[in-house]
């Protein structure tokens, strides 16, 4: 029987086709505007109108869907029937049901299971005609299915096969939700029929799409009623609750309640108020909430959550201030569950000693009289690697005694091997030693490392030419250590020598992020909201900024990591330099011009490639 009706999907008149006693409406393709889905690649953020995590379950629109198939793999075909029910707040808003011609024979066991025969499917529309209505019916709703990956897999494959963009809706799996809500004492398994019997639903599954979809609606309502006891009230809570979160995460998830959705720092604190973990985010509430989801699998963080009793939020003007405050808090408190940046003072330097025959020395701090140094290095090993590269390039002595210009001392084996000019035996004069060994190192540290680079490249070429690739690889590693340290230090010096620098960056909301940096330290931060002139805000930030006194070395007033975070922010294309007390400059022939060489050498070292001749 054919009769006209008003479509629940489009609001237009369309035709309902009855299949005898089955009375299942088949959707005839309505007027459909694909533009509502165009430009929405799978996996990206959904446009306005789609439900968000904060939406209450009672206000969420669900499309509960079930498919019947030929039993094969999801390859874009094989769908024989689609049933979907749209509900919100317990009220049924619409129904979509249709048989689908799969374009292939129906296996006999599928006919026995579902009662769907080949003859029933011959007049049915193919999936490519049904998809537009299905996608429109899904728009703005949460897709619900029992064992959802199966149904979603078939729909996504069909969309891909026939040129439709899958809208990537939020998905709630009633089978997964039942595993979290119901115990084995209540139900022996999580099959749809078992759950329908447990909840005494008015609709029972029958392996027909619409019947199973209606039964799933009843099961969904029963599960939502049980979620209240678990403090699951929003869509985001329900989706995360269905995932495999630990009992600790579920018990402690209230720690994320009431946190601000602004940039800043969050601190997990123990019962005695000790900081356990410090982190930063552009959205504190969202980031802290992620610690209580299935995506958080780090063992140390699980241990930290068990000990945490509260979360403290420190609101910041923008992400740069948040990153800097995080570094300072980690350095001040050394939280046990932070792995990085815990001890910013634990750095070493490689300096050239002040004596007639200078040598390289690894020290923990610099004195006012030190004028030739390299660093900071995060470990003694990295400093010694850079020192080895300098020893390969120039004839610096490697012994540690202080040598006299009046009396001699016995030479070591390096002198016999021709790797040291033997200043201990006065085989080289003080001026000549300065010219050959000390001066190239001084120049490389403060200005131009060309002499060191040329010498190390020549050594690599000679070793590679002799097919001594392993030795060439060792020298390459030393070259990387020297270049990495000189590039880093010269970048830091360029910033930290500036008494005051004011910069601004356009914020995502149209306002301005403002920072005042003094000697490489963030002294003040602020934000000018949209429509507020940024200049008065900058003047206020400058007036209230921290006083920072100059000091000695490339990082006199802050940790190297803080100054490097500031540098990364300043070097972004959208950051504007507003004012500076002096020029921001680097040496014209400094180490930065070897960046390409450094990147190639690092890439070769990571790939464990044989060293090629330069």
Please describe the topology of this protein.
Layout: E1 2-6, E2 13-17, E3 61-69, E4 79-88, E5 91-99, H1 108-114, H2 118-121, H3 127-138, E6 142-145, H4 148-162, E7 171-173, H5 174-181, H6 192-199, H7 209-227, H8 235-241, H9 247-252, E8 264-269, E9 275-281, H10 284-290, H11 299-307, E10 310-315, H12 319-333, E11 348-352, E12 360-363, E13 373-377, H13 380-393, H14 413-416, H15 430-446, H16 450-465, H17 469-496, E14 501-506, E15 512-518, E16 521-528, H18 534-543, H19 560-570, E17 575-580, H20 595-607
Parallel strand pairs: 3-6, 6-7
Antiparallel strand pairs: 1-2, 3-4, 4-5, 8-9, 8-10, 11-12, 11-13, 14-15, 14-17, 15-16
Helix pairs in contact: 5-7, 6-7, 12-19, 13-16, 13-17, 16-17, 17-19, 17-20
Pfam families: GIY-YIG, RNase_T
InterPro entries: DnaQ (IPR006054), GIY-YIG_endonuc (IPR000305), GIY-YIG_endonuc_sf (IPR035901), GIY-YIG_UvrC_Cho (IPR047296), Ribonucl_H (IPR013520), RNaseH-like_sf (IPR012337), RNaseH_sf (IPR036397), UvrABC_protein_C (IPR050066)
GO molecular function: exonuclease activity
Verbal overview:
This is DEDD exonuclease domain-containing protein. Keywords: Exonuclease, Hydrolase, Nuclease. Pfam families: GIY-YIG, RNase_T. GO terms for molecular function: exonuclease activity. The chain is built from 20 helices and 17 strands. It has helices at 108-114, 118-121, 127-138, 148-162, 174-181, 192-199, 209-227, 235-241, 247-252, 284-290, 299-307, 319-333, 380-393, 413-416, 430-446, 450-465, 469-496, 534-543, 560-570, 595-607; strands spanning 2-6, 13-17, 61-69, 79-88, 91-99, 142-145, 171-173, 264-269, 275-281, 310-315, 348-352, 360-363, 373-377, 501-506, 512-518, 521-528, 575-580. The strands form five sheets. It has a five-stranded mixed β-sheet with strand order 5-4-3-6-7, with helices on both faces. A four-stranded antiparallel β-sheet has the order 16-15-14-17, with helices on both faces. Strands 9-8-10 form a three-stranded antiparallel β-sheet. Strand 11 and strand 12 (360-363) form a beta hairpin. Helix 5 (174-181) packs parallel to helix 7 (209-227), helix 13 (380-393) crosses helix 17 (469-496) and helix 16 packs antiparallel against helix 17. The relative contact order is 0.06.
